Amino acid sequence: ILLAVGYDRLTNNNELNEANSHINIHRISGTLAYFVEYDGVEQMLRSFYRRSCTYPYYRNKEIAMACVQDVINGVTSVERKVWIQRQLLHAYEAFKTTECAVLNHYFIKDYIRYVELGLNEQILLQCIEDMQKILPDIHHAALGFGEETLIQKLLQDIITQDESADSTDSDDYDTADSESDGSDSDNESSSSAAATDEDTNPNENVLEKLMNLKLSG
């Protein structure tokens, strides 16, 4: 939940957006969206990366990394209780006037009370330590959607298209050269034919000139 709130704050300039803050937090948090119960920190962190990098708003691993670092910094600070409650209150305000208001009843209000009255800081810090250890591996690992295969296929398609384009350009040049040679031959043939006609009727041009002179006179 804290990671989802961090995503919403980061993408909305640390402000509450009445139009989409409740959707951001609800959809990115597996706990709030599908009541997921994680077996450990690694599974939770991997889920956050997968959900944030496929969410139709900002899809970027660097944003996911920034959210994780923000949670690590907040939880390891001296005022960790105040920081956590502030994040939960952000979620509460985002949910309270929307269709997600039921999540305040089932989750957010109880977590706020838990942080104030029963938070085990030792266990929380151990979770943060585990998160710091596995973060580099998860950040650089594939998301698990077969994206590596898709990238390889995309690169192969690009290479094939480039090769086809080069082949087409070469064919065009050859055709242009052939057409140029043909047109030159046609021009030469036409010139030869015209010269032959002039040789055949040497007086035709003279007669036309005389007729033109009479008309102009």
Automatic annotation (TrEMBL):
Membership in a protein family: Belongs to the SHQ1 family.
Protein name: Protein SHQ1 homolog
Alphabetized GO MF terms: unfolded protein binding
Ranges annotated as biased composition (Acidic residues): 163-187
GO BP terms: box H/ACA snoRNP assembly
Domain of life assignment: Eukaryota
UniProt xrefs under InterPro entries: Shq1 (IPR039742), Shq1_C (IPR007009)
Pfam families in the cross-refs: SHQ1 (PF04925)
